[in-house]
Task: inverse folding
């Protein structure tokens, strides 16, 4: 895992080496082990290395081929590099390193842009093809690894983080108020290519690009959820288990210690159980126990499930001990690493967990991101499934599914059936232009009735996104992967881990596994009271039954509602009542403070909205202090 920075001058413009050095230096947390700079006229490439595979100097970047024709900077891991290297050796290639970077360069040399379909991993890379006088780059299928781009005049820049683009001196982007307003009024984050900064965008996941030194740009998609075939197998649970085991196996490839984040839920438990099996199969000699990193808020006790998992895996638990005040005190640090706001205080818990892992010598952590969005883990997916059944005319199946859910979770089945039927009506009505117009008008009326913000801010969301109801479970899952919430969670995971020079690997986002799951019928994702049904069946006998059979879901929750009313009331009020807030020109500060007091009294829950305004101000302060704004 590393940090990359690339600058190209178009139409013969030269690049200053000092600018590339500043960009690379701003990414030192992503790669404290080594650094490198390459400048050739209009092309500058900077690199910071976190050594995970091949710890020798042979893994140094920018990596230049022996004939000087290709130069690579690469952030991420190609997990199937062992298999690709064998294939390339049969084609006559020789390798001087044992890692994946040289394999990636050879793959491009052999197959050109078609190499992308052969890669299984997480990546963001740029290759300077000196022969063709162009740069070729790509971002992995899901956007696990970040890559940002800006173009100002005749300078194009790419980097792993926004701060690196701004460090170059070539771009002075201010706040993108359309993005900021969408966040402050509706809490939307990372759902589009635009960032919080004018002129800085994300390279889309699952894409490749070429840019010539004359500025000619090409970009294409090499993988899409919309192009996946049905999964036709006799035993989906067995096939899922096989793919999952192999996903964990190749993500255990490392020349440094590997740990696991453990929550007590299905996803992290499946990972640590598989990791323990892989560790046991690699050697018959006694090995050091896996280290599991855990956080449990007092209000959300999962100790029973974690104890059962530790008993099966013999992992060593490292529990995060923290407090609301400690989390708050780390918030500004986190925002500097993130460059953009986060969704909740849960992000700060993740930041501290990665710091805990680093303090115990762990450089690689396996985590469960992506399972909820691909296999159907959120509670909202149950209604999406019921809507799918009703729209297909399967009323009896819908009733049985709703009744089974209600028996396990409580509540009334008739009410749930009626709500799902109403969703179906909304979907059909949305096809009528006049209905869509009314829905947009209602949204605008709601936004403009928000007493917290001035017209100056609200004017930026006048032509915002429409409220399109989800029509099917398949549609909801695809939107979760493409738009929200997965892109946000991946961004937070990457910055939190790299802030402490730790690499996060995500077994549930192996493209083979996702392709298989997406091709399954809905009944293998949601069935009766069960979410993630294929995962539960595939892990039968492979994880503690207490975890496999649980129907509740916690993750890494925080008690922000209570904290903002008690422990964090004063620091929150200090921010919201500050002179900066009063003078910003986008807030009605009196209304915000009044609702903070209502929150404190328990009259309403404004926790998320209060947090969003406060962190926006803290982020603005961080940017001012670092002279970015």
Result:
């Amino acid at each position: 895992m590393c940090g990359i920075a690339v600058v190209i001058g178009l139409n013969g413009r030269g690049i200053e080496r000092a600018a590339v050095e500043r960009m690379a230096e701003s990414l030192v947390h992503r790669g404290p082990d080594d650094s490198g700079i390459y400048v050739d006229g209009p092309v500058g490439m900077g690199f910071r290395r976190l050594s995970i595979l091949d710890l020798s100097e042979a893994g140094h970047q920018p990596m230049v081929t022996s004939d000087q024709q290709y130069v690579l900077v690469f952030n991420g891991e190609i997990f199937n590099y062992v298999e690709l290297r064998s294939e390339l050796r049969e084609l006559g290639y020789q390798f001087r390193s044992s890692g994946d970077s040289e394999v990636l360069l050879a793959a491009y040399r052999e197959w050109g842009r078609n190499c992308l379909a052969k890669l299984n991993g997480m990546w963001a890379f740029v290759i300077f093809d000196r022969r063709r006088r162009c740069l070729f780059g790509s971002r992995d299928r899901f956007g696990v690894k970040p890559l940002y781009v800006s173009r100002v005049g005749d300078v194009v820049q790419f980097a792993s983080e926004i701060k690196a683009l701004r460090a170059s001196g070539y771009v002075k982007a201010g706040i993108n108020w359309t993005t900021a307003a969408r966040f402050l009024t509706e809490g939307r984050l990372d759902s589009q290519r635009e960032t919080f900064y004018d002129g800085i965008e994300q390279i889309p996941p699952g894409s490749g690009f070429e840019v010539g030194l004359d500025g000619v740009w090409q970009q294409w998609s090499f993988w899409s959820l919309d192009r996946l075939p049905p999964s036709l197998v006799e035993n989906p649970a067995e096939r899922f288990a096989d793919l999952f085991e192999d996903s964990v196996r190749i993500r255990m490839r490392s020349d440094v210690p590997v740990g696991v984040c453990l929550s007590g839920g299905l996803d992290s438990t499946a990972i640590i159980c598989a990791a323990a099996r892989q560790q046991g199969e690699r050697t018959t000699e006694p090995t050091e126990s896996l280290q599991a990193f855990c956080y449990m808020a007092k209000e959300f006790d999962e100790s029973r499930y974690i104890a059962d998992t530790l008993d099966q895996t013999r992992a060593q638990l490292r529990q995060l001990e923290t407090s609301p005040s400690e989390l708050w005190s780390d918030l500004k640090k986190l925002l500097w690493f993130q460059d953009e706001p986060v969704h909740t205080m849960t992000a700060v818990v993740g930041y501290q967990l990665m710091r805990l892992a680093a303090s115990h010598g762990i450089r690689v952590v396996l985590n469960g991101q992506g399972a909820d969005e691909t296999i159907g883990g959120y509670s909202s997916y149950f209604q999406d499934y019921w809507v799918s059944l009703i729209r297909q005319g399967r009323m009896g199946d819908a009733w049985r599914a709703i009744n089974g859910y209600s028996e396990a979770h409580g509540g009334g089945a008739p009410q749930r059936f009626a709500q799902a039927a109403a969703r179906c009506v909304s979907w059909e009505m949305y096809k009528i232009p006049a209905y869509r117009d009314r829905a947009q008008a209602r949204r605008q009326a709601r936004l403009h009735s928000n007493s917290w913000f001035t017209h100056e801010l609200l004017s930026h969301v006048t032509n915002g996104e429409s409220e399109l109801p989800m029509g099917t479970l398949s549609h909801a899952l695809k939107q979760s992967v493409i738009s929200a919430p997965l892109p946000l969670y991946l961004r937070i995971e990457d910055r939190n881990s790299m802030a402490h020079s730790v690499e996060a690997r995500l077994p549930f986002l192996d493209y083979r596994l996702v392709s298989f799951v997406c091709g399954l019928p809905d009944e293998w994702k949601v069935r009766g009271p069960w979410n993630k049904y294929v995962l539960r069946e595939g892990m039968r006998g492979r994880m503690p039954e207490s975890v496999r059979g649980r129907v509740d879901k916690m993750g890494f929750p925080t008690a922000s509602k209570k904290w903002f009313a008690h422990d964090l009331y004063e620091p929150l009020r200090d921010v919201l009542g500050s002179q900066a807030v009063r003078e910003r020109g986008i807030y009605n500060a009196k209304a915000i403070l009044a609702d903070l007091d209502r929150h404190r009294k328990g009259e309403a829950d404004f926790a998320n909205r209060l947090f969003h305004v406060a962190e926006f101000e803290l982020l603005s302060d961080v940017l001012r202090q670092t002279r970015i704004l």
